[in-house]
Amino acid sequence: MRSNNILFSLLFFLILVIGCKPNKEENNSIEGIWESMGYGEILKIDATSYEYFDITDFSCLPAKEGNISEVKNSMQVSNDTLIIKRGFNKYRYARIKELPDFCNQNSKDKNDISYNFEVFANTYKNHYAYFDLNKIDWDSLYINSKNKINSKSTEVDLYLVMEDMIEKLKDNHGSIEPTDEVYELAANQIQSEIAEEETEVLKKYGDFEIADIVADFYLKEDLTKNSWLMKWGKIENNVGYIQIKAMYLYADLNLNDSLVQENGFVSTYMDAFDRLSYEQQISEEVAGISKVMDSVMQDLKETKHIIIDVRFNGGGQDVVALEILRRFNSDRKQIAIKKARHNNGYTIKTPIYLEPTKQPYTKPVYLLTSQQSASATDMMALGSMELNNLKRIGSHTNGAISDALQKTLPNGWYFSLSNEVYTDNNDKCYENIGIPVHYELNYPNDRQTFFRSIANDLEKDKRNILNAVNVLQSK
């Protein structure tokens, strides 16, 4: 009787163990082949290396590769989904068994005009986020553009067709970068088609040029050190002033001085920057801007309020913008939501948080913006909407809030497009319309007209800003 009971117990135990065993063992290794959700990428990872491929419905092009040690700390796997964290962004990839067949085929001519056009068009078809917002009839635009391409088309023809498509799509982050030779030939062709008219020659300012002119006039006590991208100090009456020219170029990349002299700083910087992994790019930019902001906030901590001028700032990295903004934030808070085009819908929504700093500046802050404040500067303005001590003065931002999805054509040209939708915490989207201000100064929409209006009367510009501050303080 006892032996039967023992046998029954053993059988029951085996049934219990077998019944509790999962049907499929979960694979938590990052090694394998992964397809992105919403970004047109395949990522191949083995024990020592990683390689990204840009994919469309019919093309697969190598994009970036490196040692897995550079990126593995930003990766985690859950339920066969790879999650990669870069700054505040999380990118999700689904495990697939093998590379698509066309990733192993190299028979296509990478310089074929029609092939490059189709890769460009298919990327827009699959990833552009604003067909509805901008009332775009994609099928019509695609067919009309394709009909301009034939067996006799040149690279210049291809470039002009793509530029025309980007303009018609009204894509704030749409761009195409051909070779210098193609760009110059296209520029000459366009110029020859325009009837020259005698017009008054007006002074044209660069973004950095007008920024320097304004900062030099504003600052009565210049405290700037070890930075050419930011200027800071005091105006008068213990009012702090910070001017930020760009939201990138802050990483310490140990650039070769002779290359900088030969090719310019930005070109040399971007060549070195592109050799980093995506994760390294983010961390290096944040480290650079954090070091600058440590000096800025130490120098201005005793001011009665601070004016931050980003009116001439065309953007860069969102993480740079938020690293600046968090110096005025005392507690972790959600500031926005983002999603990306994926199949016929969107990826899951990702909340974006602004992290606090240990000793935040909580006195009044006034953010100066204009229609030229774009991209990552839009993001700074969007995040500022959740800070009670910050008010915006000037005119609404540009409204180019989506990240730029960077891609490469088979012929090596770089291009980008807007594939994401950012909203505030109430799901309101500010793409195209920009982030509004609390005090409107009605700046001109045209870039050069705006720059000249400032440069031609710097005293009036400064007086308008200080008057706006006084009005907002009295409310």
Structural description of this entry:
The chain contains 13 helices and 21 strands. The chain is of the alpha+beta class and 475 residues long. The protein folds into 3 domains: 32-104, PH-domain like (Roll); 113-193, no CATH class; 207-399 and 434-474, 2-enoyl-CoA Hydratase, Chain A, domain 1. The strands form 4 sheets. A 7-stranded antiparallel beta sheet has the order 4-3-2-1-7-6-5. Strand 3 and strand 4 form a beta hairpin. The longest helix has 23 residues, at 278-300. The relative contact order is 0.11. The model has no long low-confidence stretch (mean pLDDT 92). This is Peptidase family S41. GO terms for molecular function: serine-type peptidase activity. It holds the Pfam family Peptidase_S41. It comes from Cellulophaga tyrosinoxydans.
